[in-house]
Amino acid sequence: MKTIKLTDKLTDKLRAMNVRLALYFWLFSIVILGVVSYIYYQTTTQIIVAQVEDNTRLSIEQAASHIEREIEKIQLLSDLIAERPDIIAALESPSDMSDKGLINTFGTFMQGNQLIRSIAILAKNGQFITNNSMMFETLSEDYTEKQWYHAALNSKQMPVLTSIRRGEFTMDKDMWVISIARQITNQKGEHLGVLLIDISYQFIEQYLDTLRLGDAGYSYVITSNRQLVYHHDASFFNDEQKIDQLVVLCERNTGLKNDMGLLMFKSDIAHSNWILVGLSSLDQAEQFRQQLLLIVGGISLLLTVLSLVIAIILSRRITRPVQQLEQALIETGEQWQVLSVDRNAPYEVQSLTTHYNAMVTRIKDLIDDLKEVEEIRRLESIKMLQSQINPHFLYNTLDTIVWLSEFEDTQGVIEVTKSLGDMLRMGLNVEQLTISLESELEYVKNYLTIQQYRYGDRFDYKITGQTDLNRVMVPKLILQPIVENAIYHGISSYDEGGLITIDYFKQQDKLVIVITDNGVGFDNQLPTKQSDMPLGGIGLVNVKRRIALIYGSNYGINIESELAKGTTVRYTLPLY
Q: According to DSSP H, which parts of 389-427 are helical?
């Protein structure tokens, strides 16, 4: 039993406004903090990754640029050697191939570039001259079948960069060289021999081994014809499967490789068919990301606790005035009485009290208005019924029928009788307060038809308007009293020439109906009560009051009249 009471008490506590406000504010703060933290974390991470990408790309491009410059210098050196007149003369005279002056010249060039391992000139007759008696390939072999030799012959006197030469069965990179071969020709363009310059493999390593590509990152150089030029792991050079993997990797687009967790960038090395490929791991980015995650998480947790405290304080400050007002309402009871609170009460309590008192006043006014409307509705139902059975109107109409019968005007009898029947049928339906404009105009037409037979040629009428407004609903029997007023008080004294016009149209968002007669008129300056005549059982002021009660004070009737010129009555109704 105590457990149930404790549960109910806890439930009621959670349903309290201040608790709910605190929870909602706290949850909203958590969502906002989560979204902001996530956006900040993702944005910062993307910036870091982008920075790593830029650094990696810049490092690869710089390394490629350094290698390009070294290759370009060696190629320029090869042009300088191959075009020397003494070398060309020596190749044209094979007996001079042992000239020590050429060997000394080679030594001079080698002293200017520490990366050059050897310089050799191979004559077309199989003789050679070199600065170093120790060559990495035995020149006694048929070197004319070597790939670099044919490449030099096909290069049209342009230096050709060959792949690495590692010597026989050695994996010592200190013994590896990369060669530049160039064909030597005389002034007639005749082939004399080939210049071969061996460059230390270290000229690539000195630039690529210093690249900062992370713990798992690495770089390699491969030719466009799938030959491996550089890799930090020497075992790759003798493993075709690994070389194929590097070739496939080189053919992929640059950027982040999610399957490897590496960033890849490529750079073509000018003056060669080499491609430098660099793959950088995200070690630094991952380390910074973890630190950022801890910082963001800690700040978010701190702000979450702080938002909870703020939520509790704010919820209490917000709900305290409401609780005070609630207590005041309980004390007031159900008598619809206005409240009074302490003048020094918080603004919220005063504002709520003001609105509550305004609501009570409005409710009282509405109740009074409803009572008045119901009373008016009851009275109008009686008046409309009396209007349709007015003995004077019925007597005049029946007298007209008798008169027409005596003159054997069968058509007139039919029209008057039919019009009277239609009027009585509509008027007896006292429960219908609004009808379509078309029905209201039909009722007026029936009335005017009867009156025309009674008054003869004294007046005529004309009804015009926008037919698309015929379906608009209007209060019942609001036009006939004005028309009746126009006949009895406006043109009944005329022998002929009287005219009543009814026009209806749309103006902005309102329905406007204008009834005009050319009768005797009246003075607009007369008191309003003089125009409140009980015409047809429903006075003019009563019609205006009905319209105001149904639609509000923005709608109603406006009357303009001038003595001896006529009267104009203008209805303004909503487009319902």
A: 391-406, 410-427
Distance CA 87, CA 105 (A): 10
d(CA 117, CA 229): 18
Query: Counting Cβ atoms within 10 Å, is residue 272 exposed (0-12), middle (13-18) or buried (19+)?
Result: buried
Assign 325 a pLDDT band (cuts: 50, 70, 90): low
Instruction: Report the side by side order of strands in the sheet with 510-517.
Output: 459-465, 498-507, 510-517, 566-574, 556-562
Contacts of residue 460, Cβ cutoff 8 Å, sequence gap at least 6? 452, 498, 499, 500
CB 226 within 8 A of CB 243: yes
pLDDT of residue 290: 77
How confident is the model at residue 529, as a pLDDT?
Answer: 47
Number of residues that make up the chain: 576
8 A C-beta contact, residue 63 and residue 164: no
In the predicted model, is pLDDT for residue 263 greater than 50?
Answer: yes
Q: Does domain 389-574 have CATH number 3.30.565.10?
A: yes
For 83-204, the fitting CATH number among 3.30.450.20, 3.50.50.60, 3.90.1110.10, 3.40.50.150 is 3.30.450.20
pLDDT 10s digits, 81-98: 888 887 888 777 765 555
Q: What is the rounded distance in angstroms from the CA atom of residue 159 to the CA atom of residue 152? A: 7
The structural domains of the chain, with segments of one domain joined by +, span: 83-204, 389-574
> What is the per-residue pLDDT for 29?
78
